Amino acid sequence: MNKEVLFKIKKKLEILANKSIGEAQTKESFINPIISAMGWDITDFDEVKLEYKHTKKDMPVDYAIFIDLNPKLFIEAKQLGLNMDDHKWIAQMLTYSTMAGVKWALLTDGNHYKLYNTMAEAKLDEKLFFEWKMEELTEDNVDKYIDFLNLLSKEKFKDDAIEIAWKNHFEVNKVKETLEKLIDDRDELLLKLINKKTKLGKTVVANSLNKLKIKIEKVYQPDIPVISHIPTKRSRKGVTGKTPEKVILFGNTFNVKTWRDVLINAAESLIKHAPEAFNKLADSEMMRGATRIYLTRSKNLIRAAHQLSNGLFIDVGLSASSIVRLAKKILKGCGYKETDIEIITKN
């Protein structure tokens, strides 16, 4: 990615900004050049699929970026000038991406770009990783744009550099938001801490914070930290060797005797609370492992198949830890948080 490409697109945007152009020309003039500049070959069907449908019943997404034959990034294009902050477009894109098991989704009208982590366990606005407007591109900020776009480049995206950048972004912004709230709420513990350090009264501290009008700029941290240690073995702690007793989900408690019961009760609860989302998970990429499929419409595709009340088949021949992971993955796929399920064991 080089800045000449970006400034060339910006110049074209300035020429066409006041003209009424459709979605097709928006793609051709602005979005295709960006995708190509990131190293992806739009003409290679194995890399970029246009009007991609994850299943025959799904609405098509404008671009699907593939790595090793698996979709990794969805790009949804809208006509130049449409409001990219419209909740309708955002929810539509995130829902479709989640159902397809695609973590990264980019929404754009060729000028305004918004990248989301669809799998983040966070509120909708917290799923937003980065956004930029081509019309605001300058020599002062072009390097920041390039640093970020490089995370989506063919070279970097395969190395999962974006995963580490997202972790930095999410953690730092959580701290920022918490600190801002503590200041806004005049948190008693914060006042005591500053009082202890400054020897000033809490009223003086509170008034001083108000006068300072402390502002913490939105954090953007795409730098890739050095990983000094990578564990070579998985921890054996968890549910292995334990017997489940209860499952708590959506305020309901289910008595269970086996890990198979845990998965079945979780699945049936989701069928009741989110039937459409659950149905879309069947045969999706999200429900596929390296050598097996876990939720499908065809009994023959599963080793230990259990038929659910909606007619789908789920694999119950899994280890305890695999069942817990699958239950949480299905929750996430249906738009809920992994922490929404609680499993109580006897030992």
Explain the overall architecture.
This protein is α+β, with helices and mostly antiparallel strands and 347 residues long. It folds into three domains: 3-159, Alpha-Beta Complex (tt1808, chain A); 162-212, no CATH class; 244-345, Replication modulator SeqA, C-terminal DNA-binding domain (Up-down Bundle), CATH 1.20.1380.10. The chain has helices at 3-16, 23-37, 87-99, 142-151, 154-157, 161-184, 188-198, 202-212, 259-273, 275-281, 320-333, and strands at residues 48-52, 61-67, 70-77, 104-108, 112-117, 128-133, 244-249, 252-255, 295-296, 305-307, 313-315, 341-345. The protein has a six-stranded mixed beta sheet with strand order 1-2-3-4-5-6. A three-stranded antiparallel beta sheet has the order 8-7-12, with helices on one face. Strands 9-11-10 form a three-stranded antiparallel beta sheet, with no helix packed on it. A hairpin with a 5-residue loop joins strand 10 (305-307) and strand 11. Helix 1 (3-16) runs antiparallel to helix 2, helix 9 packs across helix 10 and helix 9 (259-273) runs parallel beside helix 11 (320-333). 30% of the residues are buried. The model is unreliable at 216-237 (pLDDT under 50).
